[in-house]
Amino acid sequence: MARRRDKSEQTLAAIVAAGMDIAVHKGLQSVTLNAIAQKLDISKSGVFVRVGSLEALQVLILDEYERIFALTVFMPTLSEPAGLPRLNAIVHRWVHHGNELTALIASHYAVNTFDDDPDAHPDALRTRLVNGMMAWRQTLERTVQQAIERGHLRADSDPEQMVFEVFSLLSGFLYDAHVKRDPKCFERVMSAYGRLLSTYRAFDQNTKG
């Protein structure tokens, strides 16, 4: 019985991994039960019995995406001092290590979240998409707030506004990286981030770390 359960869990993990691969390269809207079945060379019913529905599979893919994104982009920065050093590390890793994953987040959050067709994306999935995005933004806002409290950024800085501007830079980076394919996109986004930071940086930074 345990062996059968282990095999079933391995198959489910393979299904989610296959879905992640399709979503990264083609977008979440390209993930279907049939596409997964063909990719893994198993029956469509074999996929269905383990995930229950396409929407449930998409949620599992989002869960896995956020787990990998956190491990790749956020968790390594916790060894940095709270405040600006950590924020800088997050942005650097987001740009240089989370490129494919960032493209994935753009494909689902930018396209699916703003889809006005309620039949295309059920309310539960849309809610999951929005909640995931808002949780990440709130994490960044807390990091900015810590930078303000430690005197790294101006006391009158608005964390929500700064995070909005950082997201805007990353959106431009995604366009240049994946559509324009500008070889200088990494340099450009980090240069833009440096200029953005200069408008928020405290003039007197007596407190460090």
Any overview of this molecule?
The chain has helices spanning 2-26, 33-40, 44-51, 54-74, 84-96, 99-112, 123-149, 159-180, 185-200. The protein is mostly helical. The protein has a domain at 59-200: Orthogonal Bundle (Tetracycline Repressor, domain 2), CATH 1.10.357. Helix 1 (2-26) packs across helix 6, helix 2 packs across helix 3 and helix 7 crosses helix 8 (159-180). The radius of gyration is 20 Å and the shape is elongated. Residues 107-115 have low confidence and may be disordered. Pfam families: TetR_C_13. This is TetR/AcrR family transcriptional regulator. Residues 9-69 form the HTH tetR-type domain. Keywords: DNA-binding, Transcription, Transcription regulation.
Outline:
It contains nine helices and no strands. The chain is mostly helical and 209 residues long. The chain has a domain at 59-200: Tetracycline Repressor, domain 2 (Orthogonal Bundle), CATH 1.10.357.
> Counting H and I runs of at least 4 residues, what is the number of helices?
9
Measured between the Cα atoms of the first and last residue, the distance is 53 Å
Helix amount: over 70%
Would you give the CATH topology of one domain?
Tetracycline Repressor, domain 2
Radius of gyration: 20 Å
Tell me the strand percentage band.
under 5%
Number of beta strands:
0
Q: What general outline do the C-alpha atoms trace?
A: elongated
The residue ranges in which pLDDT falls below 50 over 5 or more consecutive positions are 107-115
Overall pLDDT confidence: 84
What structural class results from the helix and strand content?
A: mainly alpha
| Assembly state of the chains shown | single chain
CATH homology superfamily name of one domain: Tetracycline Repressor, domain 2
Give the topology string: H per helix, E per strand.
HHHHHHHHH
Q: What is the highest CATH level, the class of one domain? A: Mainly Alpha
The main β sheet shows up as:
none
CATH architecture of one domain: Orthogonal Bundle
Keywords: DNA-binding, Transcription, Transcription regulation
Organism: Piscinibacter gummiphilus
Protein name: TetR/AcrR family transcriptional regulator
Pfam families: TetR_C_13
